[in-house]
# Entry
Amino acid sequence: MTTKNKNLVSSGFRKRKRRYISVTVILAAAVLSLCAAMMLLGNTFYSPSTVWKVLTGENIKGATFAVRTLRLPRMLSGLLAGFAFGMAGSTFQTMLRNPLASPDIIGVTAGSNAAAIFLLIMMNLSGALISVGAVLGGVLTSAFIYILSRGGKFNGGRLILIGLGVQAMLNAFISYLLLRAPQHDVPAAYRWLSGSLNGVRLSDIPMLAIIVIIFSPIIILSGKHLRILELGEDFAVTLGVNTDRTRILLILSAVISIAFATATTGPIAFVSFLSGPISSRLVGAGTRNEVPAGLVGAAVSSCPGRNSGR
# Structure
C-alpha cells in the first residue's frame, strides 16, 4: 500500500471516528434532555428547583407524589428499557445481517407476552410473578428458536423464518387466551400487550438496572466479534472467531436484557426494530452501532408524551 493510500485510509478512519463520537454525544444529550422533560412536564409543570428538592428528600405537597411515585419510575424505566430494547435489537439485526431480525419480529417478545398473559388470565397472578414469567417465557422461546435453527450449521435466514413461525403461533395462543379471558381481565391484558411506562413502580427499577449494567458491557465488548459475524460464518471462522460461543453469548445477553425490559414496561412497539437502522444511518457505515442504538431506543422510549398523567 502506497503512502497516499495509507493517508486516505487513515483520514477516512478519523472521519468516521469523529462522526461516531459526535453522534453519540448528541444522542446522549438528547436522552438526558428528554429525561429532564419527563421529570418537569405533566399535567402540572414543576420547576427544576422543585424537582431537585423532591429528589433530595424534601416533601412538597403535590410535587412529592407526582415526582417520586409517577415521574421518576417512568423516566428511569424509559431510559433503561429503551436502552435495552435498542441495543438488543441492533445486536440481532447485525448478527443475522437482516434489518427484520429484531426481537419483536422473530418471536422473542411474543414469548414473554404469551407467558405474561397466561399467568395473568389463567393463573390469576399479578406483580412480580408475571414479570418472572415474562422473563422465563422470553428466554425459553429464544432457546427453542435457536435450537430449531441449528440444523447442523447455523443459518440466520432459517432462524428468522422459524422465529416468524413461532411468533405467529404464540400470537394465536395469546388471541385464544384473550377470547377465553373473563371480561374484567381483558383491559389489563391489553395494557400489557401495548407496552407502557404507566404503572411502573420504583421497586421495578433496580433489577432492570442491574441487568442493563451487567449485560450491556458484554454486548459492547463483543462488538468487535459482532462486526466480524456480520461478514458471514465462513469469513468469521477463517479469522479465528469461535462463532458458536460468540453467538450464544450475544444472543443470551440480548435476550435477557430484552426479557427484563419487557417484563418491566411491556413490549413497547417498534423500539428494538427501529433503533438499529436509525442509529446506523446516523453514525454511518463501518462503525460499531451498539451504544448509539441503545441511545436511540432510550430517546424513543423517553418521549414526554409517554409520561401521561401527573
In short: The CA atoms of residues 30 and 290 lie 17 Å apart. The chain is about 75% helix and 0% strand.
